[in-house]
Amino acid sequence: MQQANLEQARITKSESSRWIKIWRHIKRDRQLLILFIPCIIFYILFRYGPLYGMIIAFKDYNVFRGILDSNWVGLKHFRNFFDSADFWLLFKNTILLGFYSLLWGFPFPIIFAILLNEVRFIKFKKTVQTLSYLPAFLSVVIISSMVIDFLSPNRGLINQFIAWIGFEKIYFLIAPEWFRTIYVASDIWATMGYAAIIYLAAIAGINPTLYEAARVDGCRRWHMMRYITLPSLMPTILIMFIINAGNMFRIGYEKILLLYNPMTYEVADVFSTYVYRKGLLETNYSYASAVGIFEAVIALIMLALTNVISRKMGGRSIW
């Protein structure tokens, strides 16, 4: 009995010391925690709060009756979506756009950061870096308008150049075979410089003595890039790859809505644009919510799968 009391007292003391330690950490970092409060409020209000509305995907939602009083229909909207003729077209377009964006868009910031790091003329380096991430501060509307102007068959710079070298002008924006190329290329141009900042920061953290030792051994800059810079970047590359692969299935609707037209629907229509049409234009909120939940579930599966593959291949993962 006495031993049990001693054991209980020891556990109580251990828990008390743990709470004292937590309180000390809170007191020490109180200013940072206060600064973090708006972030917590934002996620509660705009990320976790709206999750309550997901239940309309399982109901025949009626605006006048409200979410709770609408009739429960179970998986009806999911079955209707899977049986519709649009499902496989949307699935194919979303997968292809996401895959091409990952295949071509992911390596560009890495290559750009490595090459920019090798520039020794500081003024030129800073100028190029500044110009490269300026598009990240432009809205999707402005970027899409610039793309439309550049590709215009009448006054677009690209078509003027094509005509100048003696070829026929191309109507890029109404040609289905060009839409994915335009989407991916414009995305690379808009995000490459900004994404490269992460890799430039990782390169700045590489121990300079590694380069000095390689230089003493007679290594050329190409060999230092290959055997020092790139391997040192691999942890960052793997983490960024997991994040990008997880988002491969979640393609924003904004730029597609601004660039596509009835001539390119067959290659441009994706889940997000379909949700926009069904939910906001046709006011079929329950059906649109079901499509959105399906898209989110597939994105979560992609993220988890990529995370597992990365952990097994490179030993790096998000969790």
TrEMBL record:
Q: Which GO terms fall under biological process for this protein?
A: transmembrane transport
Question: According to its UniProt record, what is one Pfam family this protein matches?
Answer: BPD_transp_1
Which InterPro entries does its entry note?
A: MetI-like (IPR000515), MetI-like_sf (IPR035906), UgpAE/MalFG_permease (IPR050809)
Q: Which domain of life is it from?
A: Bacteria
Main location group: membrane
Membrane topology reported for the UniProt record? Multi-pass membrane protein
SUPFAM superfamilies for the chain: MetI-like
ABC transmembrane type-1 domain span: 91-306
Per the record, GO CC terms? Answer: plasma membrane
Question: What are the alphabetically sorted keywords of the record?
Answer: Cell membrane, Membrane, Transmembrane, Transmembrane helix, Transport
Tell me where in or outside the cell this protein is found.
Answer: Cell membrane
Q: Which residues cross the membrane?
A: 32-58, 97-119, 131-151, 188-207, 227-245, 288-309
Of which family is this protein a member?
Belongs to the binding-protein-dependent transport system permease family.
PANTHER family noted in UniProt: BLL4140 PROTEIN
Its name, as the record gives it, is: Sugar ABC transporter permease
Q: What species was this sequence derived from?
A: Paenibacillus abyssi
Phylogenetic placement of the source organism: Bacteria, Bacillati, Bacillota, Bacilli, Bacillales
